[in-house]
Design goal:
Elements lengths: L6 H9 L14 H11 L11 E6 L2 H7 L8 H6 L2 E8 L6 H4 L6 H6 L2 H25 L3 E5 L4 H8 L18 E10 L15 H4 L4
Antiparallel strand pairs: 1-2, 2-4, 3-4
Helix pairs in contact: 1-7, 2-7
The chain binds flavin mononucleotide.
Length: 210
């Protein structure tokens, strides 16, 4: 370890990677989406809890389901992107801890007994995984357009409905355990349509050395 990336890789991942709103008419293969996931899954999460869940909307029909939840300014870019990912998190991630964190069998209970801790952990780590997702997408040659301008409740109702109770099949819990975090358009961006990049804070503005 201790290796560092070359300039080209740093440009692709961060320095020259832009948020895209206009897309070339070029499809993204399912294989590329698999490569993306196979990279992002290695990013660290607390207790190795891996709460992120992804839904890739690849067809016009799937995109149509998203349409009613989108802010008006996000409609055009989302409808023209090859793929739109719903980056979500599972508040019941702890059910998988016996597999994901096998060296401590008690880990599941810490979360199943505390919904608040489970929610904070799911959101924090699901968001981290969202950032790994963006970097992994760029690593496999895709451009990204992340978006929080949408109605989370509408997305959750359609894409992550409450499971039907097994005991009384007519009874439906008010909400399911999977929650949308943000959306991310994926594809090959049109560099001609980019507007000038906004600045970032300097080291002095954002950081302290103690
Ligand atoms: C979590 C998140 C949510 C965002 N939501 C929106 C959005 O709803 N609509 C939009 O047009 N851009 C959205 N953006 C894009 C940001 O404005 C953009 O990434 C930022 O200005 C940096 O641009 P750059 O990557 O080209 O430097 C979002 C970005 C992130 C990371």
């Amino acid at each position: 370890m201790g290796d560092s990336l070359n300039d080209q890789a740093l440009d692709v991942l961060l320095r020259k990677a832009r948020t895209h709103n206009s897309w070339l008419n070029k499809p993204v293969s399912d294989d590329t989406l698999r490569q993306l996931y196979e990279l992002m899954k290695w990013g660290p999460t607390s207790f190795n809890c891996c709460p992120a869940r992804l839904v890739f909307l690849r067809t016009p029909e799937a995109k149509q389901r998203l349409l009613p939840a989108l802010s008006p300014t996000n409609v055009q870019k989302t409808m023209t992107a090859s793929v739109t990912a719903i980056v979500a998190y599972d508040m019941k991630f702890y059910e998988k801890l016996p597999t994901l964190f096998p060296h401590n069998p008690k880990a599941r209970e810490w979360f199943s007994n505390s919904p608040e801790l489970a929610e904070t952990t799911a959101f924090r780590n699901g968001t981290l995984q969202g950032a790994y997702f963006i970097l992994a997408a760029r690593s496999v040659g895709l451009d990204c357009g992340p978006m929080s301008g949408f109605d989370n409740a509408k997305v959750d109702k359609d894409f992550f409905p409450a499971p039907v109770s097994k005991s009384e099949s007519a009874e439906v819990m008010p909400e399911g355990p999977i929650k949308s975090n943000f959306l991310c358009n994926l594809g090959y961006g049109d560099p001609a349509k980019l507007f000038p990049r906004s600045p970032r804070l300097s080291f002095e503005e954002a950081c302290k050395l103690l």
